[in-house]
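Morning F.,

Quick status update on the modeling queue. The single chain you submitted on Monday has been processed. Sequence for confirmation:
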Amino acid sequence: MKKILIAISIVLYTFLSQHAFSQSYDIVIYGGTSAGIAAAIQASRMEKSVVLIEPSHRLGGLTTGGLGQTDIGNKQAIGGISREFYQGIKAYYDQPENWNWQKKNEYMDSGQTRTKEGEDAMWTFEPSAALKVYHQMLEDEKVDIVYGERLLRTDDGVEKSNGKIQSITMESGKTFEGKMFMDATYEGDLLATAGVSYTVGRESNDQYKESLNGVQANYWSVTLKGKASRNARNHNFVPGVDPYIEKGNPASGLLPYIIEGGPGIDGSGDKKVQAYGFRMCLTDHPDNRIPFKKPEGYEEINYELLFRNFEAGETQLPWINSTMPNRKTDTNNRQGFSTDFVGQNHAYPEASYEEREKIVEAHRNYQQGLMWTLANHPRIPEKVRNVYSQWGTTKDEFENEDGWQNQLYIREARRMVSDLVMTQRHCERLEVIEDAVGLAAYGMDSHNIQRYVDHNGYVQNEGNVEAHVDGPYPISYRAIIPKKEEANNLLVPVCVSATHIAFGSIRMEPVFMVLGQSAAIAASLAIDDNVALQDLSYEKLKSELLENKQRLE
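Structure tokens below.
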């Protein structure tokens, strides 16, 4: 009998330790991305109790994960907490003690974000600087931060009643109750678990009367306003790269990462997503550099297309190595075979946590192998090797001893489908919404999505789009809230209701901060007025947005 009582006690203790933790807040934010941080700060300023739940152990998402070359389009479109962050970056670098590896006057931003004389903000930064600024901003607020907790992505993960979320539960059993909830993840896990409508991949052009959505295999497309858009012409292979294991022999099979069959009919939709990759923070300072190392399991055949591209006449270096302070970089994809792991992420948005970890690790191994190859392999032109061998990951940026970060650039995953879907027509101001919660200004941008064999028998990338927008355009409040019947107390400032091509313009970190702040303002007002988010007075919301220095026009 005693043994039975002990066994029952152990089972009961285990159950209670997993399920007894429950805490209630005004606003529960899942996802410590730039959007989640801005939302938490704003909620605190409006005197709401708020918890920020981050599944990893590092806040900031891509902003602290290597994306230091801010994609912005127009600086004047950024206001509120988002601008405060970039002002904080400037204040950080105005302090001489934060220049460790070079003098301040030696640094010059070579990109789109060059700081002008008298400007109050700075738009390029080291990942560690962004992390310090975020922590400084949060120190002044009352925000409970919870690390290392992942949402239980089953029916038990979200408790909902009459379209209202009551609580969310983590894999650990911890439960968070709230009046308002926010999904600030790149993946949209909370919105999906809550039963909110969403989509993955590319819509056909016909669905929303667009011209840049769907398959984009042609070199040029025409926007709805009649302007040329650069598609397959950029970030592609030079002509004549053979796709087969044995050159000229289709029976030998395709080289790695090339799909069977063609890309699909131009303008048709599919469930594929644009490529991911790590935005590397590199350095050429010998005292801070970790040389590129060949990863375990390295297979030369995985880089055969890279070799053949150079052998076919490629003359450009396959990266964009943007300078950041302290002799560091934000290194991005360029040319036909580069840091984007094209086509190897299509399962990621809907994958389990374990499956995602495998996808992330595959991306890291691919990119580590790529960098070692470019720096060391004898089939890489010597002048190219001489450049890459000067660089390496940094000793002082990330937690991993090898200098690689854990945050993969999830450029696109799930996208909510709400009462209003932002489209190419909104980006080009052919349609203008009247319930703005922020502005976007970056061009409509998609990285490549797949790699295939063209009608000439050569390898090609497909999915790249680079289309200009004339100026800032408004993002609708309805694009960050679900349909009322699906969830009346959930906000989604990252995986917004937008088509693939419109999301390609909206999906920038400063805009995510803007939308996160606006979402928190809406949540706070809805709590005060005891109304569903969909019933909140827009005039009241607009007044509060402007009061908090958001820019809407």
